[in-house]
Amino acid sequence: MVGRKKKPRSVEDRISHLPDHLISEILTRLSTKDAVRTSALSTRWRNLWQLVPILDLDSRSDFRSFSEFVSFAGRFFDFHKDSSCIQKLRLTTHYLADKSYLPSWIDVVTRRRIQHLHINVVSCYHDFGDIPLSLYTCDTLVHLQLYRVTMVNVDFVSLPCVKILHLKNNHYPNEAILEKLISGSPVLEDFIIIRCPTENAKVLQVRSKTLKSIHVNEFVYVVIDAPLLQCLKTTLHMTKNITFINSGFPAKVDIDFGSEYNMLDPNGLSKRKVIGDILTDISRVRELVINLYFWKDIFPSFSYLSRLTATFCDADLGMLPNLLKSCPKLESLILRLSTNRLYIRGTKNNEPKFTFHTIVIPCVVSSLKFVEFKSPILGYEGEMELVRYFLKNSTILEKMSVTVSNYQRKKRVKGTDAILKELLAMPRSSSACQLLVV
């Protein structure tokens, strides 16, 4: 009939008719907060979120109060006391008035086939209290992260499936518990341990036949026996504190010389000797990330090095040619320049002018393919000269990446447009070179 309005078609809720395991898979793609919100859709959805195998709770961002967080988590873990589907649990808390409930929560999941467990205490004034004994013998855990918790002393540790173990700022009753955690993880591959400076455990012995990556900080002395080791990351304070025993040499080393190295007299002989010994020990690496503000002429020959990331203070940037000369096979170079650029501004106030355009560096000519300036270029003469040198002399250079920032525009020597124009006008030795300005 003319003029009669058609009734709108009802939208069929096909998702609600899916089996529980498929809806659970859909909810897995949501955050825990959004998955819980679906319980308000209908009676059908009321408890479906509890079938999601991933639970990620933050006491501050997900709840209006800490008591609400405790109440919600308590009900959830009580629901899963007899049978739990949780495969991954991440708990982040910013305050703990009562630590007694936490061990029981962890105990529920470690007895119910959990694979990924992340416990994080943000507040530095509270910790979680004792970790339950069941954690030390969980035979399904693959990934364990514990931040600012209290470990208890146990006679036996068995974590047969743990491949990733990250421990940061925890409390340990003694150094032996750390050795038990490592030896009790027979397939461990990735190990991070950051010691709290006030912690009593000062010596760490890492003995593992499967370990591939180690990140260790703040220990007074470290012994590493890991024949498959590929990557080492550490910060050194004053002394050479790492000893390798029967270890395969790591392919990548990320080393940060702590503030003691950077604050003391850079000409001090003892300091230079320690740095020289360390650099000699790692001279066979293929990839090196190094943070050292006082460079001196103490470079060994990095015969195998292909990737280098280095931080340079302005006053020691003149050491860069010597460093590059010690890397005959270098292919990738990432430079971080310190924010104080007095040395490379030019001749103002009789400051030395940075330049080495007449220096021939073998790797620049024959092997260097990628150069990146990680810190923003501000337009100082020395910076531009350095960029110009690589573009002009790198015959097989494929890509150069330069960061230009508008930060502190008033302190610039040149405006962004002038810097960009000068960069694009620079001659390039490699016809295949791509100049990327970020």
UniProtKB/TrEMBL annotation:
<dbReference type="Pfam" id="PF08387">
    <property type="entry name" value="FBD"/>
</dbReference>
<dbReference type="InterPro" id="IPR036047">
    <property type="entry name" value="F-box-like_dom_sf"/>
</dbReference>
<dbReference type="InterPro" id="IPR055411">
    <property type="entry name" value="LRR_FXL15/At3g58940/PEG3-like"/>
</dbReference>
<protein>
    <submittedName>
        <fullName>F-box/FBD/LRR-repeat protein At5g53840-like</fullName>
    </submittedName>
</protein>
<dbReference type="InterPro" id="IPR001810">
    <property type="entry name" value="F-box_dom"/>
</dbReference>
<dbReference type="Pfam" id="PF00646">
    <property type="entry name" value="F-box"/>
</dbReference>
<dbReference type="InterPro" id="IPR006566">
    <property type="entry name" value="FBD"/>
</dbReference>
<dbReference type="Pfam" id="PF24758">
    <property type="entry name" value="LRR_At5g56370"/>
</dbReference>
<dbReference type="InterPro" id="IPR050232">
    <property type="entry name" value="FBL13/AtMIF1-like"/>
</dbReference>
<dbReference type="InterPro" id="IPR053781">
    <property type="entry name" value="F-box_AtFBL13-like"/>
</dbReference>
<dbReference type="InterPro" id="IPR032675">
    <property type="entry name" value="LRR_dom_sf"/>
</dbReference>
<feature type="domain" description="F-box">
    <location>
        <begin position="12"/>
        <end position="48"/>
    </location>
</feature>
